[in-house]
Write a structure and sequence with these properties.
Keywords: Phosphoprotein. By secondary structure, the chain is an alpha/beta fold. It contains five helices and five strands; from the N terminus they run E-H-E-H-E-H-E-H-E-H.
Length: 136
């Protein structure tokens, strides 16, 4: 079972490279993308059962990733929100934590850590599904 991942990133090159890397290395399936805050909020909040992980950039063509994160605060407990940004400063990390973000990764030097995070989240999602199937 692949980790259903929604990506909010307005840079097409970064987005395509990220999707390729995660699909190859981390059992991730990209279920959709958004380039703006409004697109990301609309899809994530209206398709609540169709994603396991959202990867959100903070600086978007329209709006901010912070708005996307705030809109998803009441997501299901198994759904994870992570930030992938060039601006992963201590202040940004603290603001993301206040919005309930599960992890923050720096685009310049933490892509490998993001891949590892996706692999771990995929494994825990599979374990939860297996144990749920065993108890039903």
């Amino acid at each position: 079972m692949k980790l259903r991942t929604y990506i909010v990133e307005d840079n097409a090159t970064i987005r395509e490279n990220l999707i390729g890397t995660l699909e190859e290395l981390a059992e991730v399936e990209a279920v959709g993308i958004a380039e703006t805050e409004d697109e990301g909020k609309e899809w994530l909040t209206s398709h609540t059962s169709q994603w396991d992980l959202a990867i959100v950039d903070l600086f978007l063509r329209q709006g901010s990733g912070l708005g996307v994160l705030a809109a998803c605060r009441n997501r299901l407990s198994a759904q994870k929100m992570v930030v992938l940004s060039n601006y992963a400063t201590p202040d940004v990390r603290m603001r993301c934590a206040q919005l309930g973000v599960d992890a923050v990764f720096d685009k310049s030097n933490e892509i490998e850590a993001l891949v590892d995070y996706c692999i771990e989240h995929s494994n825990s999602t599979q374990r939860a599904a297996a144990s749920s199937a065993a108890t039903n």
